[in-house]
Design brief:
Layout (H helix, E strand, L loop, with lengths): L8 H5 L7 E3 L7 E3 H10 L2 H13 L1 H4 L3 E8 L5 E6 L5 E7 L8 E7 L2 E3 L5
Parallel strand pairs: 2-7
Antiparallel strand pairs: 1-2, 3-4, 3-6, 4-5, 6-7
């Protein structure tokens, strides 16, 4: 049996706050919201949370940015680009993703106060 990943934009806009904050397993000072957990579980995308959390740990200039706007753009050939802007349009991080089966063409996430959240949860 194959596991079909279904995630829609309509799924994401239902999240307007978070009742729980979930701690990243390895970067313990990074939290994420219920909406981000839903994305990770539904789309099999815990790797996306990992990418954002690990970037905080290993890129000190990025971690110094108080507000970060992250975007994953998925191409038709299943490659992708993960990019982070500083909130003023300045790109502070990019990474090429060689393969992903992420179900949406793009998704945006925010990182502030050591928390990853959906834009609708901001």
């Amino acid at each position: 049996m194959t596991d079909t990943k279904t995630l829609t934009r309509a799924d994401l806009i239902q999240f307007t706050g978070s009742e729980h904050w979930h701690r990243h397993a390895m970067v313990r000072d990074v939290l994420y919201t219920d909406g981000v957990k839903y994305v990770a579980e539904t789309a099999g995308a815990y790797w996306l949370i990992d990418e954002i959390a690990f970037a905080q740990r290993f890129d000190k200039l990025l971690a110094a940015e108080e507000f970060q706007s992250w975007k994953l753009n998925v191409n038709p050939d299943h490659t992708a680009t993960l990019a982070c802007e500083d909130g003023n349009g300045g790109v502070v991080f990019t990474k090429a993703i060689e393969y992903t089966d992420f179900p949406l063409a793009e998704i945006a996430l925010y990182f502030l106060n050591k928390t990853i959240l959906l834009p609708s949860e901001y």
